[in-house]
Design a protein that fits this description.
Belongs to the YggT family. The chain has three helices and two strands; from the N terminus they run H-H-E-E-H.
Length: 99
């Protein structure tokens, strides 16, 4: 039970870190980034495959403003606060019932 709880905590941490990578990639698009910069290349290589899937499913360009990062961040927050937290409370609750 504790092992599964630690895995869920790690997944939640990874999702939180990825959310900040999305924020950094979105902020960097507001300026004119150098496409040869390794940090810019990393940010786009990590975020664009997922953002492309969001853009393919939902039209996200409104008046020149791309809301795909916002949608992805909201999805991550939903996963962390509803799904993962719910599973964690189930694990803790079932562990309390066993003892």
């Amino acid at each position: 039970m504790i092992f599964f709880l630690k895995i869920l905590q790690f997944i939640s941490w990874l999702l939180g870190a990825y959310m900040w990578v999305i924020v950094a990639a979105a902020v960097i698009t507001w300026v004119r980034p150098d496409p040869n910069n390794p940090i810019v290349r990393f940010l786009f290589a990590v975020t664009e495959p997922v953002l492309w899937r969001v853009r393919r499913i939902i039209p996200t360009n409104f008046g020149g403003f791309d809301i795909a990062p916002v949608i992805l961040i909201l999805a991550i927050i939903f996963l962390q606060n509803v799904i993962i937290s719910g599973l964690m409370s189930l694990i803790v609750g079932s562990a309390m019932n066993i003892q």
